[in-house]
Amino acid sequence: MPIPVLKPLVALAGALVLAATLSSCSAGSTAAAGSDETSSTKYAVDADTIVFGVVPDSVDTETNYQPLMDYIAKETGKKVEYHESTDYAALIEASVAGKIDVASFSGFTYVTAKNNGAKITPISSIITAEGQEPGYYSEAIVPKGSDITSIEDFKDKKVCFVDPSSTSGYLFPSYNLLKAGIDPTKDVTPVFAGKHDVSVQKVAAGTECEAGFAEDSEVEKNKDVKVIDKTMVPGAPIVVSDTLPQDEKDTLTKTLSEVTIDDIIAAGITSADSDGFRSVFYGTKPVDDGYYDLIRDICKTTKSSTCQA
What we know:
Strand content: 15-25%
Radius of gyration: 26 Å
Structural class: alpha/beta
Helix content: 40-55%
Oligomer: single chain
CATH topology of the largest domain: D-Maltodextrin-Binding Protein, domain 2
Distance between the termini: 79 Å
Shape: globular
Number of domains: 2
Number of helices: 11
């Protein structure tokens, strides 16, 4: 008689153990799924903050971007934290490490960041005049009064570049020098100024640099240099982190994909109504990843190591 009683008890115990095991597995699976979901969607700091990263183009970089950051804060209801990297490479590292939510890159910096695993997507590019298409000029410059008249004359000269990861301050200049039969690493003495305005200043002084390169917006501010050549380059992208929650990405894309200075002022950002901001921003126009294939092609042509740095 004890045996018949024992069997049901053993069976019941086994069933309870099995149920507990299944429950545990189910809970574990749910936790794992939740963990995966959390790890795939995240902010650089927290859900109340948008970190806005920029390349250090000039001493006025933060001032130039402040109205746009104020607009992002207005549209998202979040605090916008300014993140200026020490150089282009540092912004690439920050994007790869997930330390920025939105950023204004150069085209070359964007491609390099993607090559290194950054999870970012271009939204738009800034334009500075109504009716303009994205894009700007990389300009070859010399001191006013210099007898240098062409890119070919840069050979054996001290040449100012901006940064090894700068689109208009290094990649396109390197490409143009190679087309002129000049090796940018061997046939000139390269000087990396760090910022576009500094490159212009050094060329104007004519001591550290006898010639150089910089983007047009900084060149036009200095009357002591002259432009001897220029090349149109793809517009610098504003990017969004792919790790943000989808609704956040949608909001930022809507906010930044096609906005004008008038929209920003109408939203109550009065600081946008200034000569300083108008000189660097009229609006944005949408761009996508394929827009930067030209830069990828030039990377292949120049075999620049910084394309993968």
